[in-house]
What we know:
Layout: E1 7-10, E2 25-29, E3 35-38, E4 47-49, H1 54-57, H2 70-80, H3 84-95, H4 115-120, H5 129-146, H6 151-160, H7 162-168, H8 175-190, E5 201-205, E6 211-214
Antiparallel strand pairs: 1-5, 2-3, 2-4, 3-6, 5-6
Helix pairs in contact: 2-5, 3-8, 5-6, 6-7, 6-8
Amino acid sequence: MREGIAGLLVVLGLVAGSSPVLASSFKLVDEDGVVHFTNAPADPRYRRAVGLTGRESGWFRLPERPHRYANEIREAASRYGIDARLVEALIRVESMFDPWAVSRKGALGLMQLMPGTASSLGVRDAFNPRQNIDGGVRHLRGLLDRYNGNLPLALAAYNAGDEAVRWHRGVPPYPETQHYVRKILELYGSSSHQPGMPQFIYRHEDPQGVVTYTNIPPSSRP
């Protein structure tokens, strides 16, 4: 279910024989917090990256994006037996850590709970970060249990509803839902490194020879 990216996995400064990296490169942090590097920027938001070659940095590390709700996420994740990094990825896609976020469909807060869902979960104030995170993680836990731990199906149900997943017997063929599931899985996968260890960087070269570096791992569609 994940799109293929032709490219070579490299760890900057660690892989012998790798070509010089980021000698003249540009950096972009997109709206999802994903960091991209390229030697041929096609987006005006790219800015020149300085001092990021393997020789200058030893190995290349991407900075962590801090957020205010790490304690609430960690507590709720531990309470319901879910990886805190997964919760962070979901919140990043749902609301970009905005506790006051309201979607066009009326979903509320950090984990974008619909009012009916929030009420059924006992969330009295969906804009209260602790209540919202607790309710959202508990909801995700219930979906994971319902789908026997199948994460893509649980995420699809979180986005499109349980009925849509059951009706289509899988991830619904909605572009929004398919992108949503893929994005969370990619962000969750890219956060799997341990603190203090080097972040992986992935290299992709398109048919025109444009090289792009990103911290999102390549995905493959079966």
